[in-house]
Amino acid sequence: MHDPAVTQLSLIRQLKFCAGHRLYRHESKCAFFHGHNYRVDVEVVAAGGGVEVDSVGRIVDFSLIKQRMLSWLDANWDHAFLIFEDDSNALAAIRLVEPTKYFVMPYNPTAENMARYLLEVVAPGVLGDLGVTARRVAVWETDESCAVATLTGDAGLLGLALESAVLIDDRHDR
Ligand SMILES: [Zn+2]
Q1: What is the value of pTM for the model shown?
Q2: Residue 29 near residue 48 (C-beta atoms within 8 A)
Q3: CATH code given to domain 11-170
Q4: What is the Å distance from ligand 1's center to 28 Cα?
Q5: How far apart are CA 125 and CA 152, in angstroms?
Q6: Is 59 left (phi over 0), alpha (psi -120 to 50) or beta?
Q7: Which of 19, 101, 140, 145 could anchor a disulfide with 170, C-beta 3.0 to 4.6 Å?
């Protein structure tokens, strides 16, 4: 009746960045431009699953997860405004500022959707060649609240291209 217990190893790396956003059509104060000190927890499993580790005993070295994920976050979301592509008013406003850095999201930049984007688009793009899969991403908007996106089923069927999803306009290098 019951499946026998099996061990699944995973590791979690914590990453931090700052970003601004607003929630399009939000009923109250989240509709204003504001920012957060975000914390992201990325949970990674070996592509082969189970207890697969390298000769040293690691799924992957923690430093590689940090390097790959943080360099993407630094380049794209850190000190940027995250704006929903339908929010033409916010897009028009952010384009008036010089210099400006913003990132256009295919949905409202809630913690839920940011977690989803990191899980479905960013992690496969930057971690894929390491032989690991991000199984879960948590985005902490405050010390008390986080949203979690979890992958179920076959990660190979995600089929999202990182390149085609990244839209960034950082016209002035700092
Ligand atoms: Zn917010």
Answers
A1: 0.88
A2: no
A3: 3.30.479.10
A4: 11
A5: 18
A6: alpha
A7: 101
